[in-house]
Prior knowledge:
Blueprint (H helix, E strand, L loop, with lengths): L6 E12 L2 E13 L4 E5 L6 H8 L7 E6 L2 E2 L5 H11 E4 L11 H11 L4 H14 L15 H13 L5 E5 L7 H16 L4 E6 L2 H6 L2 E6 L2 E6 L16 H24 L5 H24 L5
Parallel strand pairs: 3-8, 3-9, 6-7, 7-8
Antiparallel strand pairs: 1-2, 1-4, 4-5, 9-10
Helix pairs in contact: 3-4, 3-5, 4-5, 5-6, 8-9
Amino acid sequence: MAVEPVIELRDVFKIYHTGRLKVVALRGLYMSVRKAEMVAVMGPSGSGKTTLINLLAGIDKPTAGYLRVFGVELHKADERTLEEHRLHRVGVIFQFFNLIPSLTALENVELPMVLAGQPMMQRRQRALELLRMVGLEHRKHHRPDELSGGEQQRVAIACALANDPPLILADEPTGELDWESGSKVVELLRRAVNEAGKTVIVATHDPRIARVADRILRIEDGKITREYRPTELVEAPRTPKEETVVTYLRRRLVEAEEELHRLERAHREGRISGKEFHGKYQRLLNLIEALTDELQRLGYTA
């Protein structure tokens, strides 16, 4: 007996207008996800990953098409319905952590529950439980700038789980993290599925996430073009035009190395600031490390 999907997108378009410029971010996208499933959405920069996350989160609405998330038809929802969706049905984890700098880890985790109107004692207890779950109870009184990047992202996961939403969305959650910290984040996302029954969708370049997801969806030019299973990671493509994940990893590695060289050149020529260079440079190094390690794990060289 077929299980009805809890997330369904049919022929979804998202078009952005900036002055006279029109950008089609999603172009007729179809996608469905079952309850308590972890799905990785992988694709090149500009392929529509972040736009998809924003639509599922109710941060934005599609230009056209059908979008249903846990019984709510978001394509025709009013602002009040979208606000309820963002508060109670979905938790979002961003690449850059999105923590309030002036609040402690404990206060950041409490904040979604404050917005939902939960009593103080109840939200304090749950916040402590969530920090314990992500291994940071001992850091509860530290502010974000006193935490490492990996610790900040684990606090962000606790924040996303605060109101016990059925859906967790993550947009490049390991992009800022080194290998060890990123692996801990991946483990926490997998536990959210296995132990708490959450549905998790991750937009990512990170092969660590692809490895532990139930399915891997390939997005290109605003459309889902292929579906992989983790067991297909090293299988031959079905047609000459389709990539294996090994081919994808190698191609992404070449692209990341080329981007690194362009970034270094831009810095030498004074076209970007030192602060911007450092942040982008570290992200690219982390990505190159993750891609290389995954290829080696699968028995391939870069």
